[in-house]
Amino acid sequence: MRGFELVHPASLGEAIEILDTEDASVRPWSGGTALMLMMKTGVFQPSRLVCLGGTENSYAAIVATPDGGLRIGAMATLTSVEYSAEVMRVAPVITRAMKRLSNVRVRNVARIGGNLAHGDPHMDLPPVLSSLGAEVSITGPGGKRRVAVENLFSGYYETVLKRGELITDVIVPPQDGWASAYLKCTTRSADDWPALGVAVSVKVENKAVAAARITVAAATEKLTRLGSAEAALAKQEPSEAAFERTAEAATEEAETIDDSRGSAAYKTALLRVYVRRALRQALRNGGAQ
């Protein structure tokens, strides 16, 4: 691993100013769990790392919003998200997903902002957050903007973050009336990278599905919201037949890929099964999350 400069800006504005450079080897550093692996293997060699520790006091809080949702600071560790009473109250599916997200050592260090900004399609949190209708708040040289989680990712390890931009918060809207579930299939240990991750959120009104969000990750090049599958489920009474049609629509829409965890055909077969399982789990016990 080659040498690099490590700088410690005291504020978000100072960090953005340093990151606003044409040098692509200058990167932000929060937890560094993924970035350090890339550096050790030689995949990425930075000239400068910009430590975001100086922003932690302002951007690590997890708070309820006045409308009943959540605001999670980008510098919040995954462990703090896992054990947050507010997260458990508003979106317990996040808490459950954390139990099989990597391991305790990683969760103690990794930050939610870095988890999203890394752009790895195998991450567990992005599909969960997308199914909840979450957005990220982004600040950069051009000001502030908000982006839906599923629109943050533009390709394999690629995001729409522009030069100098940083994720500052994750905003989860109120979840009243929604039932959610996340399922992952791993080919190794339970906390390993998934071959497939499926997250669903469903709202049932008058015994029919009023709205649904269905998201797939790991099996595809990037996190993908499955609009056709959502449409297939809309206005249907929750049933095995409806879940089967939804699963078939999902397999037709999702463009699965080959990798070390399985072939595209294998992942398509998994998707067909796991969409049905996730919908059943979300609506189990009267639709409780």
Looking at this protein, list some descriptive labels.
single chain, 289 residues, alpha+beta, Uridine Diphospho-n-acetylenolpyruvylglucosamine Reductase, domain 2, Uridine Diphospho-n-acetylenolpyruvylglucosamine Reductase, domain 3, Enolase-like, domain 1, 3 domains, 4-stranded antiparallel beta sheet, 13 helices, 37% helix
| Order of strands, widest sheet | 4-5-10-6-7
Summarize the amount of helix as a percent range. Answer: 25-40%
| CATH architectural name of the largest domain | 2-Layer Sandwich
Q: At the third CATH level, what is the topology name of the largest domain?
A: Uridine Diphospho-n-acetylenolpyruvylglucosamine Reductase, domain 3
Shape estimate:
globular
Main beta sheet, described?
Answer: 5 strands, antiparallel
List SSEs in N-to-C order.
EHEHEHEEHHHHHHEEHEEEEEEEHHH
Count the DSSP helices: 13
Low-confidence stretches: none
Cα(first) to Cα(last) distance is: 45 Å
> What is the residue-mean pLDDT, rounded to a whole number?
94
Number of domain units: 3
Alpha-beta classification: alpha+beta
The CATH class of the largest domain is: Alpha Beta
Describe this protein's structure.
The chain is an alpha+beta fold and 289 residues long. It folds into three domains: 5-55, Uridine Diphospho-n-acetylenolpyruvylglucosamine Reductase, domain 2 (2-Layer Sandwich), CATH 3.30.43.10; 56-172, Uridine Diphospho-n-acetylenolpyruvylglucosamine Reductase, domain 3 (2-Layer Sandwich), CATH 3.30.465; 178-283, Enolase-like, domain 1, CATH 3.30.390.50. Helices cover 37% and strands 25% of the residues. It has helices at residues 12-19, 33-40, 56-59, 78-82, 85-90, 92-98, 104-109, 112-117, 125-131, 149-152, 227-233, 240-253, 264-287; strands at residues 5-7, 26-29, 48-51, 62-64, 70-73, 135-140, 143-148, 153-155, 158-159, 166-172, 178-185, 196-205, 208-217, 224-225. The protein has a five-stranded antiparallel beta sheet. Strands 11-12-13-14 form a four-stranded antiparallel beta sheet, with helices on both faces. α11 (227-233) runs antiparallel to α12 (240-253) and α12 packs antiparallel against α13. The longest helix is centred in the C-terminal third of the chain and has 24 residues, at 264-287. It is globular and about 60 Å long. The N and C termini lie far apart (45 Å). The mean pLDDT is 94.
